[in-house]
Amino acid sequence: MKLRTTVLRKAGLLAVLLSCAGAGAAHAADAAQGGNAQAGRDKVSMCIGCHGIADYKTAFPEVYRVPMIAGQNAKYIENALNAYKKGERSHPTMDAVAGSLSDQDIADIAAYYANLK
Ligand code: HEC
Q1: Where is the Cytochrome c domain (predicted)?
Q2: Does this model's pTM top 0.90?
Q3: What is the homologous superfamily of the domain 37-115 according to CATH?
Q4: CA-CA distance, 74 to 111, in Å (whole number)?
């Protein structure tokens, strides 16, 4: 009797775990487009100095307001970085920063910042 309830409980738990894993995988595939937020976390050390502080201004080469990118849509961040990289958008620092990033870096960083609140 006791054994049977244990087995049933285990089966139930397994079903829940399986359905969670399925949903998680689908969600990750959805949001990712190749971007990995975990990997992105290791790639933003050079961004934090400027983008990590609310309402921060850089003084080089002029005074710029630094836009907040945490919580932005991943696609938006990706587009912005690609635009700097390709020269469609221009800013002295961001051109250099984006130019040093690979497509994978950009996707990972975008995923990271999109998940950052
Ligand atoms: C020296 C300061 C500095 C550093 C370092 C820096 N940024 Fe920026 N970033 C800026 C400034 C200033 C702007 C606004 C430029 C403009 O007006 O086009 C900007 C713009 C952006 C934008 C566009 C935001 C928008 O709303 O249009 C993105 C995305 C971005 N940065 C991502 C990054 C990432 C990712 C990194 C690190 C790999 C990084 N930045 C490093 C200063 C910096």
Answers
A1: 29-117
A2: no
A3: Cytochrome c-like domain (1.10.760.10)
A4: 6
